[in-house]
Write a structure and sequence with these properties.
single chain, mainly alpha, globular, TerB family tellurite resistance protein, DjlA_N, TerB-like
């Protein structure tokens, strides 16, 4: 499945992915955000597991399996556009704000607002059809208070 998804993501004109593949694309995008600052912290990984568990109603083992698959795909994927396209095709606009919130949760999970993660989020939001203002509001909603 992993090789098949990678093949479909890397073709010049990828076809829309099914829901399970879109779920894997979202998990891989969460990993990409966490790795953007070259420090994939345990707090970021734990946050991704929590997001996957809550968003998809998965138990700990299934969340871990999905995350492990996503880590492999993220490491091998050539660019971020493939992930965002898969998500945009499979996720209704209203739910994409939740995707942006999840991405911000991961970016802020280690307690640092990093320039590389910020830049990636500024690039990804419009690819998902979410403007800068909506992304900024999403960040404010999930940022730790205080």
């Amino acid at each position: 499945m992993l090789n098949d998804l990678l093949r479909r993501l890397t073709t010049p004109t990828p076809e829309p992915l099914g829901m399970s593949d879109a779920r894997l694309a979202l998990a891989a995008l969460l990993v990409r955000v966490a790795r953007a600052d070259a420090d994939y912290a345990a707090t970021e990984r734990a946050r991704i597991l929590k997001i996957l568990s809550n968003r998809y109603n998965l138990d700990a083992l299934k969340s871990e399996a999905l995350l492990c698959e996503a880590e492999s795909i993220e490491a091998d994927a050539p660019d971020t556009v493939r992930f965002t396209r898969a998500i945009k095709d499979a996720v209704p606009y209203e739910d994409r704000i939740g995707v942006i919130e999840a991405l911000w949760q991961v970016a802020l999970a280690d307690g640092n607002r990093d320039a590389e993660e910020d830049a990636l989020l500024r690039m990804v939001a419009p690819m998902l059809g979410v403007n800068d203002r909506e992304s900024n509001l999403a960040r404010q909603r999930v940022a730790p208070k205080g």
